[in-house]
Amino acid sequence: MARGDQGIVLRQLNMLFSMGADGGLTDTQLLERFSSRRDHAAESAFRVLVERHGPMVLRVCRAVLRDPHDAQDAFQATFLVLVQRAGSLWVRDSLAPWLHQVAYRTASGARSAAARRRRHELRAAEFTSRSAHPGDHDDLAGAVHDEVGRLPERFREAVVLCLLEGLTPEQAARHLGCPVGTVHSRLARGRERLRGRLARRGVAVPIGLLAAPLGSAPTQVAVSAELLQTTISAAVRVAAAKGAITTGTVSAQVAALIEGELSMMALVKLKWVAVAFLVALLGISAAGIRGATATVLQSQASADEPRSDDDSPPTTRVPVTDHQAMENWWTELEKDEPEASRALLKLADRPADTVPFLKGKLKPLILDGNRLKELLVKLGSMDENDWRPAFAELEYFDPRLAVELETLMTDVGESPTRQRIVAVLGGHPADTFEGKAVILRPVDGGFNFFVTPGGAWWAEHDVARINRGQVTKKKWIRAVRAIALLEHLGTPEAVAILKEMATGHPLAQPTRAAKQASEKLGGNAR
Question: Where in this chain does the entry annotate a coiled-coil region (predicted)?
């Protein structure tokens, strides 16, 4: 036997024996071995991980991407992201839930890239592509993977392990380190949530389908030997280069997908660090409010469920259709923590009721001339039932948006209307300080003021207070939090509300928040 052939055989034998030993290791142990070794043992450990989870990852990629080549690119990118994060990634035991999320995000990124490429195609070809209707099963598979990724972590773990990877509840219990009964409970509740969320998307799912593994035919796939070896070889090269993606290691498409996913992870991490700093430093700032709201929804999405190991049902539960409960939570959104966080979590758990409720509460900040005239007429009324609602609506607008009101003050004289306009602009009753009217004028994001004799000292100090944003932004806390909640829910109805809110006055924080949320979702409802 030639010496070169002998070396190949020896490597294959070493691989065979090491794979036999690695097959009984947990994902955590395999990942640690891959991260700490740079020999055949590392390659063997990674091979076991790909063989163990590859079919599930490929199913996710194919559910999102109908082009098989794009699906293979997303498959490779998913496992190479794992290589990049192997040294810092912590998993309880199974990588399946983490890989499912990365695979879905990566495949979604590939789908967006493909859509951008299609924009450059001929109009006729584009029309033909849109006219082709995919099979119902493909639509269902993509929707299921989308909704699985949105489940609370403990439900998602059970669903991914049992329904996507095909493990028995007993096997999943060993992976998760919990009783078998707990897995059964979480699996049942995860199925129920999936069915409800899919139903809200207009996808009717038979009970029998969610009772069977989602990896069964016709969605069951096998990773080809070529794809398996290509992925493992690329992983070994990337690991040897200490995570660097060099020319020739992978294709340009795969490299772009890896970069996109790693950038997303870095931005998310940076966002939460910045949020924590801003919340601690600024407290009530609108950016901190929106970021803190998103943090609550992302990191505590399962806090609304009982935390006991046996997942016993809660002893009390507010009815989903209880409108008064919705009103109470809406009120709590304007309060400080922890009331606002509790309200957010309660509302997030009831998207079918929350989204229509918020649609009735949130309106774009548009103060057109006709509406302004109507409000001014009511503001001049001596009947409190008329002018109080008008005052509340005008007060909601930031003083920087109230230039129209200032131009009208010279026309109304010293009337009740003038005093109430002053109160709207200043964020306070105009006659509470020695009966002196204080008028704040918006100038370049700050305020100038004039005051009748006797009230200048107070006005100077209150202008400084308002310039710090502690008055005007407080009116928008609830709206900004509600917008962050709609972004978190991401349903088609929620996206529609965000788009409508984004049409408001560009200086208003709710308008900016809605625009950012709408752009982040990209019109792609969950």
Answer: none
pLDDT in tens, 106-145: 998 888 877 776 665 544 444 444 333 444 444 566 778 8
pLDDT band of 20, cuts 50, 70, 90:
very low
- Spell out the domain ranges in the chain: 133-219
DSSP track, 138-179: HHHHHHHHHHHTTS-HHHHHHHIIIIIS---HHHHHHHHTS-
Q: Residues 183-217: pLDDT tens digits? A: 898 988 888 888 888 888 777 665 445 544 554 44
How much is the pLDDT for 381? 76
CA gap 76, 69 in Å, rounded? 11
Structure tokens at 471: 């008055």
Query: How do beta strands 438-443 and 446-451 pair?
Result: antiparallel
Adjacent-strand bridge partners of 449: 440
> Rounded distance, CA 175 to CA 94, Å?
6
CA dihedral 402, 405, 410, 416 (to 10 degrees): -120
Place of tokens 């809605």: 514
Rounded to 5 degrees, φ, ψ at 323 are -65, -35
In terms of Cβ atoms closer than 10 Å to its own Cβ (0-12, 13-18, 19+), residue 419 is middle
Distance CA 181, CA 311 (A): 9
Which amino acid, 263? S
CA–CA dist 403, 417 (Å, integer): 16
Is pTM beyond 0.85 here? no
Query: With contact defined as beta carbons under 8 Å apart, do 486 and 517 qualify?
Result: yes
The SS3 call for residue 205 is: coil
Distance CA 107, CA 103 (A): 6
Q: What is the pLDDT of residue 488?
A: 82
State the number of CA atoms in the 13 A half-sphere of 399 facing the CB.
28
With CA atoms as reference, report the closest residue to 59 among 210, 165, 195.
165
pLDDT tens readout for residues 449-479? 344 344 333 343 343 333 333 333 556 778 8
- Residues 6 or more apart from 47 whose CB is under 8 A from it? 15, 19, 228, 232
State how far the Cα of 265 lies from the Cα of 274, in Å rounded to an integer. 14
Task: Tell me the sheet residues that pair with 318.
Answer: none
Thinking of the domain 133-219, which architecture would CATH place it in? Orthogonal Bundle (1.10)
Residue 497 in this model has a pLDDT that exceeds 90 = yes
- Residue 30 pLDDT: 86
Q: Using omega within 30 degrees of 0 as the cis cutoff, is the peptide bond preceding 218 cis?
A: yes
